Amino acid sequence: GNSAQTESDARSQVSGASNDGIAETREIIELETSTGSEKADLVYINGTILSMNPGREVFQAIAVKENRILSLGKNSDIDAYIADFTQIIDLNGRTLMPGFIDTHQHLFDDAIIQGYDPLPNQQIAIENGITSIADLYVDAGVLSQLESFSNAGDIRVRLNVYLVSTSNCGETTGDWWKTYQPGQNLGTNLQIGGIKIFTDGGSCAIPAMSVEYPGGGFGDLFFTRTDLAQTIRDVDDAGFQAAIHALGDRSLEQVLYAIEEVLGGEENRLRHRIEHNATIRPDLLARYNQTGALPV
Fold this sequence. Notes:
By secondary structure, the chain is α/β, with parallel strands linked by helices. It has helices spanning 75-78, 107-113, 119-127, 140-151, 225-237, 249-263, 285-291; strands spanning 11-13, 42-45, 48-50, 58-59, 61-65, 68-73, 87-90, 95-97, 100-105, 130-138, 158-164, 185-187, 190-198, 242-246, 273-276, 294-295. The strands form three sheets. Strands 9, 10, 11, 12, 13, 14, 15 and 16 form an eight-stranded mixed β-sheet that branches. Strands 1-8-3-4 form a four-stranded mixed β-sheet, with no helix packed on it. The chain is elongated and about 70 Å long.
């Protein structure tokens, strides 16, 4: 999650809220330390800071060190964390909140595949408060370029990449993804999120439906149920989360059966997820709860 935010990771917006809504308690929430012995790299003061903790407390100031929140409280509570090198930002009453997490995006991969610089896309995301992104179509070529951006310090959001085991047309990309580890850190702000599997059409071919299209045909299903279950099992056995593209109801039904077979009644501990879920038949709704599959 985005529990610790730097200046570029935080979303500030002008708000008419006054400090009257700030928690009056003198007790400081301290997430990493019980004293002010650690000094902050960054301190925000005079703000309306939404902590997003279970109590929904609102605070006036926050101290941050190396992407960790040291403390939340009143301005005076944070004084102990300020050193000569600490950057102090006066929010002047504006609201500060954790950044948004976008769990399915193509901001980086689309730009790279089409030959464009992805960094302007990243800047737009940051300006709209998005600080963590899952990029859902990363092949070996895209990954190589992302690693170059990371090594140059150009990736500013937390970027989780999903390595493709099949193309968007259903063609296998081989076992290249098996050379990586689940959650592997590939560089600054760049890590492996999981493995992407395409089960029916969309950007290539046609979504697989149980009803005939007006022009004829039922769409394109890329796997048999047995082959899909084996593909998901390979991902599960390797310890990765599977992100499974499924648009049509026929594809969704197949995916739910395959996940159920792979899990064998056990908990979906790796949080295998189904992307898009565009045409869910009513009879399939209960299957999501039964299998524990996560719709995204």
